[in-house]
Specification:
Membrane topology (chain B): Multi-pass membrane protein
Radius of gyration of chain A: 21 Å
Number of domains of chain B: 2
Number of domains of chain A: 1
Protein name (chain B): MBOAT family protein
Order of helices and strands of chain B: HHHHHHHHHHHHHHHHH
Keywords (chain B): Acyltransferase, Cell membrane, Membrane, Transferase, Transmembrane, Transmembrane helix
Oligomer: heterodimer
Largest sheet of chain A: 5 strands, parallel
Structural class of chain A: alpha/beta
Number of helices of chain B: 17
Shape of chain B: globular
Strand content of chain B: under 5%
Strand order of the largest sheet of chain A: 2-1-3-4-5
Structural class of chain B: mainly alpha
Number of strands of chain B: 0
Distance between the termini of chain B: 16 Å
Shape of chain A: elongated
Subcellular location (chain B): Cell membrane
Family (chain B): Belongs to the membrane-bound acyltransferase family.
Number of helices of chain A: 12
Helix content of chain A: 40-55%
Helix content of chain B: 55-70%
Chain lengths: ~325, ~475
Amino acid sequence: MKKFLLNIILFIIPIAITLYPFDVFISKSLAKSNKYPGNYTAWNDIYNGKASSDVLIFGSSRATHHIDPDILKDSLNLKVYNFGVNGHGFWLQYLKYIEYLKHNKPPQHIIIGADWFSLEKRPDLYQYNQFLPYMLWNRTIKDYTNSYIGFRYLDYYVPALRYFGNSTAKERTITYAFKDAKKIKPYKTRGYRALYDRKKQGNTENLSIRENYNVKIDGETVDLLNSFLTDCKEEGIQVSLVYTPEYFDEQRFIINRKDAIKIYTDLSIKYNIPFLDYSSGEISRDINYFNSTMHLNSSGAELFSMKLVHDLLQNK
Amino acid sequence: MLFNSLDFAIFLPIVFILYWFVTKKNLKLQNLLIVISSYVFYGWWDWRFLSLILFSTIIDYWVGISLSKQSNEKKRKLLLWTSIFVNLGFLAFFKYYNFFIDNFIGAFSFFGMDVSANSLNIILPVGISFYTFQTLSYTIDVYRKKLKPTEDLIAFSAFVSFFPQLVAGPIERATNLLPQFYKKRVFEYNKAVNGLRQILWGLFKKIVIADNCAVYANQIFNDSDNLSGSTLAVGAILFAFQIYGDFSGYSDIAIGTSRLFGFNLKQNFATPYFSRDIAEFWRRWHISLSTWFRDYLYIPIGGSRASFTKTIRNIFIIFMVSGFWHGANWTFIIWGALNALYFLPLLLSKKNRNHLDHVAKGSYFPSLKEFAAMLSTFILTCFAWIFFRAENIGHAWAYISKIFSMSLFTIPEVRPSDVSILVIIFLIIEWIGRESQYAIEKIGLQWKKPIRYLFYYTIIFAIFWFSRSEQEFIYFQF
């Protein structure tokens, strides 16, 4: 038995030694990827300390595709970065913020995409691949992602284990391993990506099959939002809550939409911060500005970004 | 718990350490550990169905003891039928209830009669077909006085629930496995290393071959209406490797794991795709099930020693029942019947035992004749697999019709070059190791340690690199 155990150990040692460099190789290659969902650029900028900006935008995909940082930058004459997280509520948006703070300078102003979607916490770790290159031995990522169905406990600690069974990550490793990162065009520009314009029918096709939906407001997420706003107030960071445009005909399907609006209104009063609601504005009534009922297309996003910057300047 | 899961990778060393270090000195305790581990292993999937295993165990344990005390033949038969009724009853209810109800309704409506009966939403307990057959072998052998019944309930429970082979075989005979629970197990270095090597090869078969073939095979079978005949032919071939890699991979892991605990399970696959005729194929494919049906069904109903018509009937019975064992669908029955049709000419011409030895024994390459024989057997097998994989008879028929169309001579729309390379490498290794219990059993044993280790590291790397998201084993559904 001794010989058996000793040989097992001797056999495993080379594997154990090569696991970490192997992990680094895969992670670094994967992080260069600009294929969909392509969230890596923003994460890379965060961890490399290249994301430092005066204005940060947080929210779901409705922030990613709605607010163009370049338009804000030109008008405000400030550095702007969009940190929208596709498919996730404030819980994971906040993770990006605290990781940002570890490696970058604090912002002056934060724009929060304040919609009903951001108050939910879905059970699955949608687009979990975005965390893969950065999550090994990263306690913060573990703390904010381990409540989702996605990673196993050991995935956070054992090098390369999380890549076992992940064929997408390995295919992308092969594609990007030996490419020059500087020559790879990022999927998003400072976190923003415009959505293409679909035909009018395409924009509303989901309405014919849309069913009523009751927003599952997550108490922990609301608490987190509260403590985030408290921290910002203490540190003198300006916050604006922004309900970005949402096609008006979509809104009738969200049964308790008013409850979400009330939460944001109350927070706005409590912390004395602006709550700009564009869900009943002109853009929200014109389907030509939408890619889908929840997302603006490129022209809608451009128009909205200009309107937003105008209103932000007025609110100053 | 899946063999290819992280859970099992943690579970196995824990049980191994407890087994050889904590409970080593006490055989009863060691057997009890096997029972507990096996119940944890099974309960990981769904603990509710542990009651079925427990009930089956108690009934068959009681039947075994009662049979030994009973000399009245009628009462002995009654006891045997009790065991058969309970075990097959579970199987009939959980696996075949809806099939019978649906066909019953269908048959009546065919004659214009409206019958209403509800099918139930029944979950099929994983591995039920395997462990019921295993316990049945015990009671039948005790009834036939081939085996002394056990009075050791823990040993018997361990035999029924032995976790390496509980959910997908090999279906062990009580005559082989049960006595191993009575004897003190001694750790043997060579046996344990051999076990690890077989586990490694099993994982390779499952993760590298089966799961990668499955991606294309599923894509082709699920979209067969829109693909050309040549693509569908590719799909059938890939499914052949998927099911072989999947099932024989499971068996290898099961046998290898058992070796780590000092047990010997019977070989379940012996490079079946190198068979030169269908009879040889069935001696090499799912051996534990084929021999089970041979000993407990085929021979009792007369086997090949009956009249000409009865022999034909017996052949069809054994193959069709074997097909039906796989699943409650007519596709499996047709698959069985098709294999009977393949087999029958060989039996009737007394050529069914022509190839008892390994192909091209002692040479590197097969002769042209052997190659042609292997290829034609493989094609026949792939053709039968279409029924096995199809959703229903209509799907199988449409699939086959398309293969035999002019589009067979077009370039396939799906060209799995990556998987093809893997399959070719796999076949080469299988060919080299075709005379062993599993392909890499003896490969590299003469090499220097670093080179041998490099060979194993390459396999481990391939397992890592070609792994896809965790896939269940196909035979779990049977």
